[in-house]
Automatic annotation (TrEMBL):
Organism: Ureibacillus terrenus
Record flagged with keyword Isomerase: no
UniProt keyword list: Isoprene biosynthesis, Nucleotidyltransferase, Transferase
Sites marked Positions MEP for the nucleophilic attack: R152, K208
Name of the protein: 2-C-methyl-D-erythritol 4-phosphate cytidylyltransferase
Length: 239
């Protein structure tokens, strides 16, 4: 099933401390942004990419799209102060969309298999998010003191993409704008409408590049995947 994707890319990346948009930093000699865009560029079910950007970075981003032959970008609307505003800006320039994904531009390791399950679930149920089960012991803390050990069996770390029927997400975004509500993710906006959000299990490799340490993890993931691809190719040649 086909879909379009919104990528908010107008953040400041302060936690990275790079002095520029972290999406322009490189992994394996390629900008993080391009790694992410290529996932959707190579997916035949993705019919359009909408990238919310800063006005002053638009020309440079367009040059990257040209250099790396990213052809599916259908819109480059101005991003807003908050992620929510950037996603809404993307929705306003979309046409004829049925399923829309919202994805962190700094999360370059999402796989096509997870995307397919998200799209299928969103089509059938209305809303779905990628996530992984909590691995660590979870504690509730108040004023620096542990007050409760939380049962982690019911806890998930939520990632992106988050997938929705277009009209449902647009309604949630418009309601949030009208009431002045600011959510932490799109699922939270849809939850406010009383709609169920379904979880699709993802991979722990689907990290968001946020800090300098994440760059190290990202390089390791790329090397690991390259070794797996080489091994699979060798096995095919030997069979």
């Amino acid at each position: 099933m086909d879909y379009v994707v919104a990528l908010p890319a107008a953040g400041s990346g302060k936690r990275m401390g790079a002095g520029k948009n972290k999406l322009f930093l490189t992994l394996a000699n390629k900008p993080i942004l391009i790694h992410t865009l290529e996932v959707f560029e190579r997916d035949p079910h993705c019919t359009g990419i909408f990238l919310a950007v800063k006005q002053e970075e638009r020309e440079y981003i367009q040059s990257l799209l040209n250099e790396y032959i990213i052809t599916k970008v259908k819109g480059l609307p101005n991003g807003g102060k908050e992620r929510q505003h950037s996603v809404h800006a993307c929705l306003k320039v979309m046409e004829d969309a049925e399923i829309v994904l919202v994805h962190d531009a700094a999360r370059p390791f999402i796989t096509h298999s997870v995307i397919r399950r998200l799209v299928k679930t969103a089509y059938e149920k209305g809303a779905a998010v990628a996530g992984v089960r909590a691995k660590d012991t979870m504690k509730k803390v108040k004023n620096g003191i542990i007050v409760e050990t939380v049962n982690r069996d019911d806890l998930w770390s939520i990632q992106t993409p988050q997938a929705f029927r277009f009209e449902l997400l647009r309604q949630a975004e418009e309601d949030a704008e009208r009431t002045g509500f600011l959510g932490t993710d799109e699922a939270m906006l849809v939850e406010r409408l009383g709609h169920e959000i379904h979880i699709v299990e993802s991979s722990y490799e689907n990290i968001k590049i946020t800090t300098k340490e994440d760059l190290i993890f990202g390089e390791a993931i790329i090397k690991h995947r390259q070794l797996n691809n080489e091994s699979n190719l060798t096995n095919l040649m030997d069979s």
